[in-house]
Specification:
Layout lengths: L10 E5 L2 H4 L12 H6 L17 H15 L3 E5 L2 H4 L9 H16 L3 E7 L5 H4 L8 H17 L5 E6 L1 H10 L10 H25 L4 E7 L3 E3 L4 H24 L4 H10 L9 H6 L5 E5 L4 E5 L7 E4 L15 H13 L5 E6 L15 H19 L4 E7 L18 E4 L4 E4 L1 H12 L3
Parallel strand pairs: 1-2, 1-11, 2-3, 3-4, 4-5, 5-7, 6-8, 7-10, 10-11
Antiparallel strand pairs: 8-9, 12-13
Helix pairs in contact: 3-5, 7-9, 8-9, 13-14
This protein binds ligand PGI.
The site of the ligand OC[C@@H]1[C@@H](O)[C@H](O)[C@@H](O)c2[nH]c(CCc3ccccc3)c[n+]21 has 13 residues, from loops.
Organism: Hydrogenispora ethanolica
Pfam families: Glyco_hydro_1 (PF00232)
Keywords: Carbohydrate metabolism, Cellulose degradation, Glycosidase, Hydrolase, Polysaccharide degradation
Length: 445
Amino acid sequence: MPKHVFPVDFVWGAATAAYQIEGAVREDGRGESIWDRFSHTPGKIQGGDTGDVACDHYHRYREDVALMREMGLKGYRFSIAWPRIVPAGKGALNPKGLDFYNALVDRLLANGITPYATLYHWELPQLLQDRGGWDNRDTAAYFAEYAAVVFESLGDRVRHWITLNEPSVVAYNGHAIGEHAPGFTDYALAVRVSHHLNLAHARAVAAYRQLNQGGVIGTTLNLTSVYPAGNAPEDGAAARIADGMYNRWFLDPVLKGAYPRDILELFGQKLQAPVIQAGDLERIAAAPIDFLGLNYYSRLLVRSAPSSPFGYEAVRGAGPCTAMGWEIYPDGLYDLLVRLDRDYGHPRLLVTENGAAFDDPLQAGRVADPERIAYLREHFLAARRAIESGVRLEGYFVWSLLDNFEWAHGYSRRFGLIYVDYPTQERIWKDSARWYQGVIRQNGV
Ligand SMILES: OC[C@@H]1[C@@H](O)[C@H](O)[C@@H](O)c2[nH]c(CCc3ccccc3)c[n+]21
């Protein structure tokens, strides 16, 4: 018997994203996305990898749903590729794109797995990027139009919706440091993009409410627990700024309907204020969410750095790291969950991503991944402690079901519970997949 049992209806899940697993990028009318363009741009992706084939999930989804069923997943979080549904980003629809996601959803439901659909996991149609992308506030309206099409097609069976995956990463990695598509390095642009993403989220929530389909809708934010590296007062001040830029800039609009004043002023000084127009904040405030999805991987340790653009710099933690170089710090998940509960009005929460990459050598047809088992176990226990403290955590989606295309790292990083032998596309259960199957079966660790 497990020592730490979870609530009886706790949603044990796993997560993926379209561009990272589907492949078939030119099939059945799919339009080009900014990640097709970016991954085919020499020098952007480790090893020159692209998502052209990935895990070939577009063709293998029946087999993959069978794997989810065998694992005993209660929920499966996946993303819908905008360029499959509206190839040009706006205007004409692609029926075959809708057919694929209808078939996937029907198969999930037939196997007793609840679908959790993310509308935007970074695949902006390239033709919209050609018109300014997220720097063009019209993109927010095009996103809501795409969302409405998807709600109408799937909303009778998909009852759990996530508008955006990690707007902070879209803004920062894609527009401030250029590590992600579309590859810009302009901080003022990144701040404008963050505002237009918040607008897009609000418009999609409003579109969902209008349809009265009776499900729930939220968003997924990449959040962390920020700690000062030292006891000096300036380190505490640095931590507050980092927490503001990383967390509160995205949390406050969706959960409080307003931007945090300190960061608004900071951006106002350092950058042109975000292009906030009359009615924007009212629109954002008028679109409350039903639940918040959070992706947690590691903590953030900062110290004062007067010469840095925003007065702080990250410090490497002392703990062991994953293959991504991210410190393993389960207490940061507990602290984050308790903080969200305390500061944001006891919201319904889902861990929409948590997981780790390790080397995962395939040896004699087996992948022993004790580090991933330890990582997940420690984070599950942190989540359990938070639930005991009264946090309304309703589910947990491990990143990821399958090894897949890890953005700028290509296929060099393996986050999957299930190993993918890309040359043969064979799926091989890692030890952690068997272990997770047991956790789900006994509903606890
Ligand atoms: O890096 C692992 C996963 C990605 O594969 C997911 O698509 C993405 O939602 C996701 N977010 C994070 C944390 C933020 C981050 C993303 C990408 C690169 C660095 C940090 C980690 N992950």
